[in-house]
């Protein structure tokens, strides 16, 4: 009955979500969810009878088959997948990584295809074809071809440079080398040549090239230490261990070459912490799990060499599976710009259609009756109107600016180089500059609403530092001399008296050193002895120096602190630990290690002193230690007060205590302990129960305070970004207490913040869903939805939620369904309809719940998500993108951040660490989190302002230029004749008006970088899209229309009844065209001068240089010499020199320019005087504001008794190394032959049975 009941339960019926565990992965199967009960792994040297019995069930899920040293096995037909028609390829990926897009053969066709997918480029290609038809064109073909070739060429060169860089990066990785078994021997091979089933050898400090099964290593029991910084940004070492059978038999080259093991395991997936498989070898099966797998991207540490069998290669590796789908990112302005181009298309078609109708009407009324207009073609007026429609499409084509896209690319490229060259974002310690890895997103940096940040390695340095301690109720760690007098300035403690000191600890309390050396208070020495003995740190000697390897950086910091204070952990064996106590070496017998786990939140060690006394030492979180203290603890309250002080300083705290144990008491307890150690089921629970019996009536020694060292400038950066109305969410896999503590340290949280946890949020959302369901009656569709806030306004709230609660709240939990139900299909149409409706209701409920969660979270000033998986990080980012339509930025440093980085609108990687996976997937990278404020508040804001100014001006100048043709058409019978010379039309956007606007897009700045950082509120204009939107677009459109009217009608009026200086009328078409063109060039170039906020010599030179260039080229093109050479292409012979020697025409040009610009100057003056923006105010007072105000850190408000925010001691996310130490598997010793080991094991078994 119980089994049937279990098969039909759901997660909703289970217990509350566990804050300590990371929830399931996105690839978890239903069968894995069903199999959640405790299981005991069989002994490795015993034949696994259970595995054999369940082999068929296992095979159902484990369909990935690997044969060692047999490449032909993986090329069999059964492993081939059809790729394209009849072309087949192996399902086993090779180990080469490919991130590039083109090769030498595909570059030209693929790049042109991609470019012509852009509507504007395709439009101009069609236009070029139309211009080749003589019946409809009034413009020469080169007026379109020259700009089009320039656009395509510049874009192609940029794409080529980007792809060459990707080729180089791929080659660098693919050509790394390692040793592979070939022809019975290890031979050097490149990574790209490695295949599934190969046996490889890796050496110390080598990167792991693929996901491999560890077979053996140089360490005892084939242990292998790996650094996972590439995966998760953490630098503390983790250990893996091979199967005992492969450890014994596969040490030598010849045995590895003949190894023919067969592996069945799960298909490639993205679960970094799970692996399920079986090794079949020598007629025996051996279970495999994640502890035996080395993942690609990790680094071998402290292990001379190791051997492994490749299971997943290349794109199938877990690190690549975790990288997420590569998304093509485009900016908000890009989308807006495309919609505006489509709007211009519509306007162009409407104008052309109206003018074509006008021409048909004119032909019917005037053209047919004017003999002098007969062109020899007997076309009807309607057909002439149709031809003229296409003629106007060609003439007015410059309304759709062909050079817009290439100009945008040039500006973005220049802005990217400015980011790369910024010395204030250069990190000299690691020689790491900032790097813009994409050139398409710069202006979006000025529109960020939400930042999603990893914690470890991003906000923190992942370096723990011993700062303070409380011993016997006395706090140590302040700036004091040996006489206990406080000093604001004092030299740090000199540890040179201690030969074992590592010189890395900065400590300023000289009084503590004096107390240790004097020995007046035994508790002080006892305190540091506890730190030196109660841990699971491993030690080795490198060049005579002690080197500690800890399961967590916290534990390493404490042992290193004890070392510097004179209590040095020197060595350990399976049963002993050796400590140097102020120079005296003493060895203690270790009777038991009671290891840490996330439920116990403490660890203990029981030792026998050389004098024969038995003592228990314990360290752990204050919440669990205080429950287990003896009633008679005189310093309990003083220590509690010290813990509160440490917590107010955002230090990570931990309590230390001890207990004397009688021999008889220990012997009784030890029997229970040994029984629990060999319990066949629920071993962990049994051990925890036994631990509880001995860990009571403890005597409190004191407390330690560790600083989880933040990167420099993190609080200042977060403060600045908050003032810019940017919300920061922290998404981390770390513990809840640790993440909360970092929230206080970096000032995301403060004492006035009301913190809401998962259970609070779940209750609020449940209530909201009930209210929405109650309101969703018959009349729901007639009532507009009302946004109700979840919290009262004015309160400072923060949300801290774990991954398990996140799944619970967002209805992402997977259900355990009955296996019978899995096979049940709807039999009737009614059942099918009911099931579909039920599914839709569930989806609608899930969507509403997720939207409510996002609304609630966005009301909080800060959000911290802890114990979350890489997929959950990406999911949170996607929810905000989807429901808030906000621009998001994700920043991280490890492979577990890659999915989040790719999901966000902009991804930033922290470089300069060992792990570069996040950097390779990012859009921007730099070495320190603090550079983010400069990237956004300076480069991002400038880029946004420059791009908006550029686009507004670009549309304006093209409307002003093109719509002159429209006004001219009313005076030429709507005949699609141009108002300018053909060469002027060709060169207008390419030479005459391009350089000033490009330089404005590259160099303009409304205020300096220092003022941008000092006044973060300036950033908000980008978030609100104030500088470029449809309103601004239509203002530019109207401005262009009015300018084109002035440019056409003032010269037209001046030319109507005119006599020149020589008595001749200068009112011919060519002189009129020159007058309009000259006025246009001067107007648009002076207009950009009015738009420029930051003047340099280059800007001034470009404006006046463009005008000079126009007159120079015009006089050259209108010369008789070039007409003689190309009579059909240059027909304005002598026009410029004839027209521009007339003062009347110059006066006309000056009047036209003045009428165009003076209203603009007047409106700008009134706007800055009456309605000044924040930027205008700062510009006005910039001299007074030049002295930059130093950022002052907010004073913490200390309140006694605030213990909820203290971080429990982290130790490690998993257990420490206690199992390894107790079993002796980590201790170096001479290897015994396998026969001797089997004989010893048999004898031990017999003794156990006899007893």
TrEMBL record:
TM ranges: 116-133, 139-161, 339-362, 389-408, 950-971, 983-1003, 1033-1057, 1069-1088, 1100-1124, 1144-1167
Catalytic EC class: translocase
Annotated ranges, domain P-type ATPase C-terminal: 919-1173
Cofactor (UniProt): Mg(2+)
Membrane topology summary: Multi-pass membrane protein
Keyword Cell membrane: yes
Compositionally biased tracts (Basic and acidic residues): 42-54
Record CDD domains: P-type_ATPase_APLT_Dnf-like
Residues making up the signal peptide according to the UniProt record: none
GO terms for cellular component: apical plasma membrane; cell projection; endoplasmic reticulum; trans-Golgi network
PROSITE patterns xref list: ATPASE_E1_E2 (PS00154)
Residue numbers annotated as active site: 454 (4-aspartylphosphate intermediate)
Domain named P-type ATPase A: residues: 174-237
Stretch list, region Disordered: 1-54
GO BP term, example: phospholipid translocation
Keywords, sorted A to Z: ATP-binding, Cell membrane, Cell projection, Endoplasmic reticulum, Golgi apparatus, Magnesium, Membrane, Metal-binding, Nucleotide-binding, Translocase, Transmembrane, Transmembrane helix
Entry similarity comment: Belongs to the cation transport ATPase (P-type) (TC 3.A.3) family. Type IV subfamily.
Name under which the protein is recorded: Phospholipid-transporting ATPase
The organism of origin for this protein: Suricata suricatta
Lineage summary: Eukaryota, Metazoa, Chordata, Craniata, Vertebrata
Gene that specifies this protein: ATP8B1
């Amino acid at each position: 009955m119980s089994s049937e009941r279990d098969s039909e339960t759901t997660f909703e019926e289970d217990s509350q979500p566990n804050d300590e565990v990371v929830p399931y992965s996105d690839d978890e199967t239903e069968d894995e969810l069903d199999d959640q009960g405790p299981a005991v792994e069989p002994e490795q040297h015993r034949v696994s009878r259970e595995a054999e019995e369940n082999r068929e069930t296992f095979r159902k899920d484990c369909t990935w088959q690997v044969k060692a040293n047999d490449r032909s096995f993986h090329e069999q037909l059964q492993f081939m997948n059809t790729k394209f028609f009849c072309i087949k390829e192996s399902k086993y990926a090779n180990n080469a990584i490919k991130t590039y897009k083109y090769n030498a053969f595909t570059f030209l066709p693929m790049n042109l295809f991609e470019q012509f997918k852009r509507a504007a480029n395709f439009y101009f290609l069609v236009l070029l074809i139309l211009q080749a038809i003589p019946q409809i064109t009034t413009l020469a073909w080169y007026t379109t071809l020259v700009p089009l070739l320039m656009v395509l060429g510049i874009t192609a060169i940029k794409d080529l440079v980007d792809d060459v860089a990707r080729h180089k990066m791929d080659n660098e990785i693919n050509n790394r080398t390692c040793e592979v078994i070939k022809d019975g021997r290890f031979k050097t091979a490149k990574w790209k040549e490695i295949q599934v089933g190969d046996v490889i050898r890796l050496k110390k400090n080598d990167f792991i090239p693929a996901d491999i099964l560890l077979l053996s290593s140089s360490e005892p029991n084939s242990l292998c230490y790996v650094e996972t910084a590439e995966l998760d940004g953490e630098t503390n070492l983790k250990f893996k261990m091979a199967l005992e059978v492969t450890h014994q038999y596969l040490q030598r080259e010849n045995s590895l070459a003949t190894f023919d093991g067969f592996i069945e395991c799960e298909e490639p997936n993205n679960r970094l912490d799970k692996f399920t498989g079986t090794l079949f070898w020598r007629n025996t099966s051996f279970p495999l799990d994640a502890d035996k797998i080395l993942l690609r991207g990790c680094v071998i540490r402290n292990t001379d060499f190791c051997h492994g069998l490749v299971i997943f290669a290349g794109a199938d590796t877990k690190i690549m599976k975790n990288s997420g789908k590569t998304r093509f990112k485009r900016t908000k302005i890009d989308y807006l710009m495309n919609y505006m181009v489509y709007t211009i298309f519509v306007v162009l078609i409407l104008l052309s259609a109206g003018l074509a109708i006008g021409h048909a009407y004119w032909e019917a009324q005037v053209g047919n009756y004017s003999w002098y207009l007969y062109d020899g073609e007997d076309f009807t007026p309607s057909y002439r109107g149709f031809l003229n429609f296409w003629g106007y499409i060609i003439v007015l084509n410059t309304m759709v600016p062909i050079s817009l896209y290439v100009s945008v690319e040039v500006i973005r490229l220049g802005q990217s180089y400015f980011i790369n060259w910024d010395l204030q974002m250069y990190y000299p310690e690691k020689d790491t500059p900032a790097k813009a890895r994409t050139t398409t997103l710069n202006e979006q940096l000025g529109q960020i609403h939400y930042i999603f940040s990893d914690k470890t390695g991003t906000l923190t340095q992942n370096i723990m530092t011993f700062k303070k301690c409380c011993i016997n109720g006395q706090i140590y760690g302040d700036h004091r001399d040996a006489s206990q007098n406080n000093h604001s300035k004092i030299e740090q403690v000199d540890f040179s008296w201690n030969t074992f000191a590592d010189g890395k600890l900065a400590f300023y309390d000289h009084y503590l050193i004096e107390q240790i050396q004097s020995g007046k208070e035994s508790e002080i020495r006892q305190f540091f002895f506890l730190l030196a003995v109660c841990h699971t740190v491993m030690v080795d000697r490198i060049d005579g120096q002690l080197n500690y390897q800890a399961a967590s950086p916290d534990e390493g910091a404490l042992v290193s602190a004890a070392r510097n204070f004179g209590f040095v952990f020197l060595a350990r064996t399976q049963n002993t630990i050796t400590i140097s106590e102020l120079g005296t070496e003493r060895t203690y017998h270790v009777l038991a290690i009671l290891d840490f786990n996330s439920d116990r939140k403490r660890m203990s060690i029981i030792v026998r002193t050389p004098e024969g006394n038995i003592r228990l030492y314990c360290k752990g979180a204050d919440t669990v230690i205080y429950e287990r203290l003896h009633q008679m603890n005189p310093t309990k309250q003083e220590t509690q007060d010290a813990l509160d002080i440490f917590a107010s300083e955002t230090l990570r705290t931990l309590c230390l205590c001890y207990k004397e144990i009688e021999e008889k008491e220990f012997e009784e307890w030890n029997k229970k302990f040994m029984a629990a150690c060999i319990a066949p089921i629920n071993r962990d629970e049994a051990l925890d129960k036994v631990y509880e019996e001995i860990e009571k009536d403890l005597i409190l020694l004191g407390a330690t305070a560790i600083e989880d060292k933040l990167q420099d400038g993190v609080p200042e950066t977060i403060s600045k970004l908050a003032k810019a109305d940017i919300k920061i969410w922290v998404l981390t896999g770390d513990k809840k207490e640790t993440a909360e503590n970092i929230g206080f340290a970096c000032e995301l949280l403060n004492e006035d913040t009301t913190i809401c946890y998962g259970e609070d949020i779940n209750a609020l959302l449940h209530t909201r869903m009930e209210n929405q369901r109650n309101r969703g009656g018959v009349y729901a569709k007639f009532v507009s939805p009302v946004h109700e806030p979840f919290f009262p306004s004015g309160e400072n709230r923060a949300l801290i939620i774990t991954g398990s609660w996140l799944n619970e709240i967002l209805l992402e939990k997977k259900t355990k369904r009955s296996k019978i139900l899995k096979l049940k299909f709807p039999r009737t149409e009614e059942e099918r309809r009911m099931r579909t409706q039920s599914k839709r209701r569930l989806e609608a409920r899930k969507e509403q719940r997720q939207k409510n969660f996002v609304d609630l979270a966005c009301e909080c000033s800060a959000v911290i998500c802890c114990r979350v998986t890489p997929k959950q990080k990406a999911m949170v980012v996607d929810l905000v993108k989807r429901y808030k339509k906000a621009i998001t930025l994700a920043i991280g440093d490890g492979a577990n951040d890659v999915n989040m980085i790719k999901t966000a609108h902009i991804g930033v990687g922290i470089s300069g660490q060992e792990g570069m996976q996040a950097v390779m997937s990012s859009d921007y990278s730099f070495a320190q989190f603090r550079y983010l404020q400069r990237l956004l508040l300076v480069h991002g804001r400038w880029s946004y302002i420059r791009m908006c100014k550029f686009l507004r001006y670009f549309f304006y100048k093209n409307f002003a230029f093109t719509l002159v043709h429209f006004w001219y058409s009313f005076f030429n019978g709507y005949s699609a004749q141009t108002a300018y010379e053909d060469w002027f039309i060709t060169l207008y956007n390419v030479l005459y008006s391009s350089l000033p606007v490009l330089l404005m897009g590259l160099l303009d700045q409304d205020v300096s970088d220092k003022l941008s950082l000092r006044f973060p509120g300036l950033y908000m204009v980008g978030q609100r899209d104030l500088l470029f939107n449809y309103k601004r677009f239509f203002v530019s459109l109207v401005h262009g229309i009015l300018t084109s009217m002035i440019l056409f009608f003032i010269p037209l009026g001046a030319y109507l009844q005119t006599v020149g200086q020589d008595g001749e009328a200068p009112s011919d078409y060519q002189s009129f065209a020159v007058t309009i063109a000259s006025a246009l060039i001067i107007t648009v170039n002076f207009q950009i001068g009015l738009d420029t906020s930051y003047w340099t010599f280059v800007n001034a030179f470009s404006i006046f240089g463009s005008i000079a260039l126009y007159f120079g080229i015009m006089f050259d093109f209108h010369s008789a010499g070039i007409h003689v050479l190309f009579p059909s292409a240059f027909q304005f012979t002598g026009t410029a020199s004839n027209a521009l020697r007339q003062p009347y025409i110059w006066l006309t040009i000056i009047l036209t320019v003045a009428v165009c610009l003076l209203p603009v100057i007047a409106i700008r003056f009134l706007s800055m005087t009456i309605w000044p923006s924040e930027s205008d105010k700062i510009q006005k007072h910039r001299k007074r504001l030049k002295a930059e105000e130093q950022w002052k850190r907010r004073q913490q408000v200390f309140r006694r008794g605030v213990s909820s925010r203290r971080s429990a001691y982290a130790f490690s996310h998993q257990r420490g190394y206690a199992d390894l130490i107790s079993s002796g598997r980590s201790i170096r010793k001479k290897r015994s032959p396998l026969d001797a080991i089997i004989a010893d094991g048999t004898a031990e078994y017999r003794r156990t049975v006899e007893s």
